[in-house]
User: What shape does this take?
Amino acid sequence: MTEVKNLEENMRLLIAIQDCDTHIMDIQAKKEAGPQRMERLKQDLEALERTLDEGQQRFKACEQESRATEQEVEDLENRLKKAEVKLSSINSNKEYRAALKELDELKRQKALLEDRLIEYMEEMEALRGECEMGEQRVREGTRQFEEDRDGVLKEQAALEEALGTFQTQREQFTKDIDGTLLSRYDSLRGKKGGVAVTPVIKGVCQACHLGIPPQKFNELIRGDQLMRCPNCYRIIYWGEDRRFQENRATPEPGRPLGQDEGATRGRVEDDKSGMSEQDR
Ligand SMILES: [Zn+2]
Assistant: This one.
């Protein structure tokens, strides 16, 4: 009787420790996800900034080329004026024809450059629009990034707090549990993806989802020995046993546990004297 009682208490503590560990694992996964999400958001913002920068570079290059072309047009105009002056002072037909030809050639070049200038202007207009849109996207992206970053930071702080709570609670539970059982649990947890203790409900192990033989299930319900799932080897308990449904360490992350914890510990101690064989 005393031994069974002792096993029951240890199981209850073990279940509570498993609950804490499950929460701790979950919190740690969320804590790692936060910075990864931030990194993705940062990369998204950087991509927007790069696109904007490229647009601005293209605009600058286009503007420079446009200015150079304007200069070329101006030079051509000067040459045209000179050619026209020259034309008016020519006497021979041959020279006149040659000068006319030169004048035509200069006009042709000027027309080409003027066409190119129009193209540059159109391109600059398009690029200006692109840059304005890019600036707007960067502004919006920056605002979103800052908002998300604040969210992640807040979440991280809440997770940190919850982690501390569960760690403290776990420590409390481990003080009372049998040391050998705790070592077995810890070693098993390392090998079993963080879950070393699992309920069996309606004859089915809730970790591996395989049924356990009826005779074993009856032994489990009797609850007078520590048992393992014959399939996954995790430590099992009868999940429908109301004694194991109470006193669970399942607080919401971020919520202080001080009072709950005291109540839980109190109930564990009360049960030392309150339970009889008929209650099973
Ligand atoms: Zn199993």
